Amino acid sequence: MTYVVTDNCIMCKYTDCVEVCPVDCFYEGENTLVIHPDECIDCGVCEPECPADAIRPDTEPDMDKWVEFNRKYSELWPVITRKKDPMPGYQEMDGQSDKLEKYFSEAPGEGD
Questions:
Q1: Where are the beta strands (DSSP E) in the chain?
Q2: In CATH, what number is assigned to the domain containing residue 78?
């Protein structure tokens, strides 16, 4: 099992999760985060820290696409280990549907 970030992180990008990760397996894009599925040790401490409920175990239904999404971008983006402010307007974006299709950016974030 591994944990992955899903589309509710897009345009919110809370980073509470990165501070608690013991193996630094979070990577930062311009408007979302991902978890490297091969680096995640399945401890689960990040899941309850996410205010947007965007972190899910890969054992839930329909998570295969998110595992591959997280794998792809974790190999392209810089690692992030410190908490930053969420994105401007995150309150309005939290919980919106179809954020992957509407808002996702492939651009990397700043990282640490």
A1: 3-5, 26-28, 33-35, 55-57
A2: 3.30.70.20
What separation in angstroms does the CA of 88 have from each of 12, 94, 95?
8, 11, 15
Query: What span, in angstroms and rounded, lies between the C-alpha atoms of 49 and 54?
Result: 10
Question: pTM, whole model, 2 decimals?
Answer: 0.95
Confirm whether 110 is domain-assigned.
no
Nearest Cα to Cα of residue 87 among 76, 99, 98, 71: 99
Per-residue pLDDT of the chain (112 residues; tens, 9 = 90+): 899 999 999 999 999 999 999 999 999 999 999 999 999 999 999 999 999 999 999 999 999 999 999 999 999 999 999 999 999 999 999 999 999 999 999 999 999 8
User: For residues 105 and 73, is the Cβ–Cβ distance under 8 A?
Assistant: no
- Cβ(38)–Cβ(71) below 8 Å: yes
Q: Per the structure, how many domains does the chain have?
A: 1
